[in-house]
Amino acid sequence: MEMIVKQIEAYREEISGLEINGPASLEEYRLKFLSTKGIVKSLFGEMRNIPADQKKEFGAVLNAFKQFAEEKYENWKQSLESQSDQGTVGVDYTLPGDPLPVGSRHPISLVRNEILSIFRRLGFSVAEGPEIEDDWHNFSALNLPENHPARDMQDTFYLSQNPDWLLRTHTSNVQIREMEKGKLPIRIVNPGRVYRNETISARAHCFFHQVEGLYIDEQVSFADLKQTLYFFVQELFGKDVKIRFRPSYFPFTEPSAEMDISCLLCNGKGCNVCKHTGWVEILGCGMVHPQVLENCGIDSNKYTGYAFGMGIERITMLKYQINDLRLFSVNDVRFLQQFTASI
Predict the structure, then answer these.
(1) How far apart are CA 147 and CA 150, in angstroms?
(2) Cα-flanking dihedrals φ and ψ of residue 307, to 5°?
């Protein structure tokens, strides 16, 4: 017993000489003396080796040492906590915090929102629909029956056949679904992602984004279409941009046209982007074909309408002078950070 008591006194002297200067050294002390595998616990294990007539005396010494070690721990702990609290004195919590990096919206989202904002000011509402579509809403109802040659203009991703289900090739499927509801007049724009089986390059991708528009009412004319698109282009690109319409063909509109604007990169003088013509095509449009109206249960003798559609990527490339369409989908932070100020 005398040897163990001398050892306890040595531990007392060791503890008294310790300097605890931080949480790490305090935790080291706790593990050494007070943990389940620490010195205090092991000393209590020696109780079984003490003669019965000396157990009471040894137990008193041992309990005193345990109390001593625990009090030292608590005192050091409170001292460290007090020092930590004093370290915060004088901090001005009203000062602004450290700046955090600001993210940015994707350029496609920026232009999409701007396009929708312009058409909302003209009384258009936004309508959206499914990206997985059946053949009727994507093709047949749009005057594109099976084996129609115009279907070759859109190389389609088919998911199943008989019945045909596919990834939509345009957002015109939303227009068909809205017309089928029979709630007239209709004045909507349809944004969304579309898919076509094309080789990925600087000018094409297997998916892209569109905004299409539809207006159906009594006595709607091509003049209404032109004035709507004139307003849209000038709001988006500025008052100085020049506009022209060229006759075209789409099976779901008649008459049909494509609209060009003067090249923003060369100001109409001619460059590689506009193929030295001074003009860049931005959208297709036309009066809704009477057969499309009839397919949706609308009386083509009473109602007329116009429709238009544009690729958001093409508009974005022109607006921000981007020369590679693939940049929109590679998630390069260096490219995306350029649009932080556009939020």
Answers:
(1) 8
(2) -140, 155
Tokens 């207006």 found at: 215
Q: For 300-329, write each residue's pLDDT tens digit.
A: 999 999 999 999 998 998 888 888 899 999
The DSSP result for 8-46, as a single string, is HHHHHHHHHT----SHHHHHHHIIIIISTTSHHHHHHHG
The SS3 call for residue 244 is strand
Question: What pLDDT sits at residue 299?
Answer: 96
**Quick check: 147 pLDDT over 90?**
no
254 assigned to a ligand binding site: yes
Q: Work out the end-to-end distance of the chain between its first and last CA atoms, rounded to an integer number of angstroms.
A: 79
Instruction: Specify whether the CB–CB gap between 284 and 250 falls below 8 A.
Output: yes
Domains and CATH numbers, the chain: 2-84 (no CATH), 107-342 (3.30.930.10)
Residue type, 26: L
Question: What is residue 342's predicted lDDT score, i.e. its pLDDT?
Answer: 57
Edge-to-edge strand order for the sheet containing 243-250?
125-126, 186-195, 207-217, 304-311, 279-288, 253-262, 243-250
**What distance in Å separates the CA atoms of residue 82 and residue 66, rounded to the nearest whole number?**
24
User: Measured on CA atoms in the order 111, 113, 116, 117, is the torsion positive or negative?
Assistant: negative
Contacts with 225 (C-beta within 8 Å, 6 or more apart), sequence order: 215, 285, 286, 287, 306, 308
What pLDDT, on a 0 to 100 scale, did the predictor assign at position 85? Answer: 61
Rounded CA separation 325/194 (Å): 15
Q: What is the mean pLDDT of residues 204-231?
A: 95
Binned at pLDDT 50, 70 and 90, residue 60 comes out as confident
Q: Mean pLDDT over all residues of the chain?
A: 88
In contact, 188 and 304? CB cutoff 8 Å: no
Q: What is the pLDDT of residue 136?
A: 94
